[in-house]
Amino acid sequence: QVQLVESGGGLVQAGGSLRLSCAASGRTFSRYAMGWFRQAPGKEREFVAAISWSGGKTYYADSVKGRFTISRENAKNTAYLQMNSLKPEDTAVYYCAARAAERNSVYDRPWSYDYWGQGTKVTVSS
Length: 126
Prior knowledge:
By secondary structure, this protein is an all-beta fold. Helices cover 0% and strands 48% of the residues.
């Protein structure tokens, strides 16, 4: 069982930066692939970024490639999403997700994940 808690959301102006954190409980965090998703009002949840448990493989949605960076510190049971050059269309509730996985596997579908956090809200003003 893994419990996930996101933090770091807030209000930021367009062009600004935020770093989201996802703190995980459980002894096997280092064997879980992690993902970030977001959901804007009235829209479906969409994939943002994913990282393998080894940290050696990452994958991004085209809409955030070059602006967002996913990373993890297994010793701290924490995953991160560094968001730069934020745009108003990045406004959403951001969720982290986890699942047990092979070393270099990443997943971009929400149904691939077994555990979810409660979300943290990001608002980007124009």
